[in-house]
Amino acid sequence: MAGLDTTGSNPDVSLLYDINGLAEDSPGWLAKSMEFVGEYGLLLALVLLVVWCWWGQRKRGALEEAAASVAAVVWVPLAAGIAVLVNVPIRGFVERRRPFMDHDGLTVLVDGKTDFSFVSDHATLAMALGAALFVANRKFGLAGIAIALLEGFCRVFMGVHYPTDVVGGFALGTAVALLLSPLAMALLTPVATAVGRSGRVGWLVWARPA
After folding, report:
1. Is the pLDDT assigned to residue 2 strictly greater than 80?
2. Per-domain residue ranges for the chain?
3. Helices 163-179 and 121-136: crossing angle, nearest 10°?
């Protein structure tokens, strides 16, 4: 995809400059912090949120209820992985270059980003985790979606994605997490039930009443 114009008539580019301009005006420590947070920190926070959610879901009373709850949590990382895989052909088809390759004056906080830009893997992964968490548990899901939104902001702030790269990632992650959820639950719940009945690994699904 050809580079977008820098005249300011394109709202995608204008918003890119507005958000990324905050990085140039930020103190060095804040820029460094945002670099880590946007590249690794928020994804790590989402992983910890998934683990926390799983630990709580397995404590439900009856095995059948616990198995369905844990199956929903198992779907969370699977949804994220599928969403990222679906993005591979999308990026290859669109072939949009990173914004700093076509636009001058951007503050780029992460080096080595030479792959295609649309859609954002980080935004896709983060929102797939958040949306799938919402299916498993609304409280954890809302927290996950909030983290995903912050992840999207960070990717533009860091100068490595256009806003529409992030919006596309949000849409892709949400679509995969929600549309495939019924099929995933139908397949994963019997597996979780069987694991819950196991003497050795049943604790992964069900915290048996004392």
Report:
1. no
2. 11-99+110-197
3. 30
Cα 185 to Cα 178: distance, rounded to the nearest angstrom? 11
Give tens-digit pLDDT for 95-128. Answer: 999 999 888 888 888 887 888 999 999 999 999 9
Which CATH fold topology does 11-99+110-197 show? Vanadium-containing Chloroperoxidase; domain 1 (1.20.144)
**Rounded to whole angstroms, what are the CA distances from 74 to 79, 85, 91, 114, 205?**
9, 17, 27, 32, 10
**CA–CA distance, 61 with 113 (Å, rounded to integer):** 48
Is there a contact between 171 and 178 (Cβ–Cβ < 8 Å)? no
- How many CB atoms are closer than 10 A to CB 138? 10
Residue in the block written with tokens 């980080």: 122
For 42-76, the pLDDT digits (tens) are 999 999 999 999 998 887 678 888 889 999 999 99
User: How far apart, in whole angstroms, are the C-alpha atoms of residue 81 and residue 43?
Assistant: 13
Look at residue 9 in the predicted model and tell me its pLDDT: 59
The Cα 82–Cα 100 span in angstroms is 28
